[in-house]
Amino acid sequence: MPSSEQDKEVKAANELVIESLRAGFGPLTTRLNWEIEPAPVYSPHVRTVDGSIAEAAE
Amino acid sequence: MIREQAARLRAGSTSCVELTEQALEALKRDQLNAVITLMEDRALEAAVERDKELARGMDRGLFHGIPLAHKDLFYTRGVRTTAGSIPYRDFVPSYNATVIDKLEVAGAITIAKLNLHELAYGITSKNPHHGFVRNPHDPERIPGGSSGGSAALVAQHAIPMSLGTDTGGSIRIPASYCGVVGLKPTYGRVSRRGVLPLAAGLDHVGPIAASVEDCALAMNVIAGPDPKDESSAKIPAPEFNLPPLKSLAGIRIGLPSNFFFEQVQNEIGEAVRKAAREAERLGAEVEEVQVPEFQEVNLAARVMQLAEVAALYANHRDSSQFGQDVWALLEQGRMIAGHEYVNAQRLRTVFRREMDALWAKVDLLFTPTTPITAPRMDESTVDINGQPEDARMASTRLVRGLNFVGDPGFSIPCGRTAQGLPIGLQMISPPFTEPQLLQVARTLEPYLFTPAAG
């Protein structure tokens, strides 16, 4: 099989994987509430992942 | 095994040099493709020094003079660290990973860098650049991955412990398939400085070992805050090697009524339930519990992993530098949209809260580590009670979610199938409760079947 054909097949297979992932993942986001689960905030002053975001907000 | 070697050293029945030479010989005879780089000269020099120290009364503790080898993802000063890949094939770090430093300060001797799934991005350890790692129970089967070389050599008793990493099950899957123990600690419990990242939000460092005690002893050395790792938790490390309990009275063990026992090979489900019955016989309260929908946790974890790894390798656009499977995952990661990654992060809070609610009801969960035993090298699809499933998806299905919520997960052998393949029990506990988890495991360990290999 020519490589361009092969590339197309691989690309199509990858797209199928992501479509299937999105089909499951998309509906989960309806459970999100911005007041409870805000987008993660990264600040140059926040040095750790655990608990520091809350500290920065205060 | 570590305590036994340490006792022989103190009794004068062996020396650090002799132990190191024996371990090096075992690795030279390796038929499992588990070794990438032997560090013979450096290891023997260190062994001579450790012997001199013992002779003059300087004892660094249980790891003094114990030869160890680790996944080739950990920086070793002056020794190449390949990640089993082409992009890093000539990479020579100028410093040691914090965990390597800690083990060497404790007296351990690093003797080799071990084979793994390319870039730690996969579970087969079929490495296209350094050869396929083989399972010591059946060389026609995979050892699991990505820490495949580590688990294979520990199972063969060539080394008592090996450091691995776990981003979606890469410590627990090979521990399960090779019949050894493996701990993915709480996120942040062990420093990741000097460890080549895969997905920074999901990466964990932990031990793969021959026994629960060896695992706990390793945690005593490697755990704790690292001022040079901004993501390490600021919680001081406790004693991890607690003695076995006389009884498990007062311990509440949950057996998930959803997700974890669905689509599991019958022999595996039965072995895990049998382990729970043993715990009950020792006094534990065992009850069925509803757990968060880990199918959903897995979806969010996959979004996060695909995006984070694609970000790390954003400037690598030459497919000839990667194995086909790894390249496909990198391409898939580039398709994840920014809003999907952010929402996966937000969902982390949702599932974290659900786990906290669960921990108000039970102290531990018992689940299978993997729904299948080690697949054959050529098996991309596995059969689970008549249902086909992709072997990679099946292997990660019961372990990946813990990387997302961050709770500790420990795999311990609990039997074997009629074919003689090891079965892994996964014990899960609340964040930062590894000492209690390991204590229950150590109490239960004599009552669980431990498969021999090699």
Write a concise keyword list for the protein shown above.
heterodimer, A: 58 residues, mainly alpha, 0% strand, elongated, disordered C terminus, B: 454 residues, alpha+beta, eight-stranded mixed β-sheet, 14 helices, globular
Write a short abstract of this structure.
Chain A is mainly alpha-helical and 58 residues long. Chain A is 50% helix and 0% strand.
Question: How would you characterize the overall build of this protein?
Answer:
The complex is a heterodimer of chains A (58) and B (454). With 58 residues, chain A is mainly alpha-helical. Helix content of chain A is 50%, strand content 0%. Chain A is built from two helices and no strands. Chain A has helices at residues 3-25, 52-57. The longest helix of chain A is centred in the N-terminal third of the chain and has 23 residues, at 3-25. Chain B has 454 residues and is of the alpha+beta class. Chain B has 14 helices and 15 strands. Chain B has helices spanning 2-11, 16-28, 40-55, 98-105, 148-155, 172-178, 212-222, 266-281, 294-312, 324-334, 338-358, 391-396, 400-405, 434-444; strands at 35-38, 67-71, 109-114, 126-127, 131-132, 161-166, 181-184, 204-209, 252-256, 285-289, 364-368, 381-384, 387-390, 409-416, 422-428. An eight-stranded mixed beta sheet of chain B has the order 6-8-7-14-15-11-9-10, with helices on both faces. Chain B has a three-stranded mixed beta sheet with strand order 1-3-2, with helices on both faces. Chain B has a two-stranded antiparallel ribbon with strand order 4-5. In chain B, helix 9 packs across helix 11 (338-358). The radius of gyration of chain B is 21 Å and the shape is globular. The model of chain B has no long low-confidence stretch (mean pLDDT 97).
Outline the fold blueprint.
The complex is a heterodimer of chains A (58) and B (454).
Chain A lengths: L2 H23 L26 H6 L1
Chain B lengths: L1 H10 L4 H13 L6 E4 L1 H16 L11 E5 L26 H8 L3 E6 L11 E2 L3 E2 L15 H8 L5 E6 L5 H7 L2 E4 L19 E6 L2 H11 L29 E5 L9 H16 L3 E5 L4 H19 L11 H11 L3 H21 L5 E5 L12 E4 L2 E4 H6 L3 H6 L3 E8 L5 E7 L5 H11 L10
Helix pairs in contact in B: 2-3, 7-14, 9-10, 9-11
